[in-house]
Design brief:
Length: 152
């Protein structure tokens, strides 16, 4: 069965990448670890906060890869000689991705009390108007014919 896309309209040109992004977001939405919050700090500022208890700054990496914010955590802890009666604190490695809209900039990341805060900002877009020159195709054809006639 083929899937009908909302972006298949001939009036929506070049939006196929948005469909791929939505598919990618849908696949990663099921992940539940680590838990996170997204706050709006201002009209053009956001903060993503991940609960990363047990991870040190050196165990984490924050990267922007194409249009994705990718946070990875990997702990190197030897627990082979430890015996747990109950183990409820998750400390497994993880990768958490967020798709960034065009223009979103990552301003920084900091760790406070087991929470990783990543600040994002969307600069105010300046209106952009581009004038497209309309060329006269008939003149171009006449010039080509004139050149051809001179050769003969």
């Amino acid at each position: 069965m083929t899937r009908v896309s909302v972006f298949s309209s001939p009036l929506l040109l070049g939006f196929d990448h948005i469909e791929r992004v939505l598919d990618r977001v849908n696949k990663t939405a099921a992940e539940g670890y680590p838990p996170y919050n997204i706050e709006q700090l201002g009209e053009h500022r956001l903060r993503i906060t991940l609960a990363v208890a047990g991870f040190a700054e050196g165990d984490l990496s924050v990267n922007v890869e194409d249009n994705q914010l990718v946070i990875r955590g990997k702990r190197e802890e030897d627990i082979s000689n430890r015996v747990f009666i109950h183990r409820g604190i998750a400390a497994r490695q993880f990768t958490r991705s967020f798709v960034l809209a065009e223009g979103i900039e990552v301003k920084g990341a900091e760790m406070i009390n087991g929470l990783l805060h990543i600040d994002l900002e969307r600069p105010v877009p300046q209106p952009k108007i581009t004038q497209i020159e309309i060329k006269n195709g008939a003149k171009k054809k006449q010039q080509v014919r004139t050149i051809d006639m001179e050769r003969t």
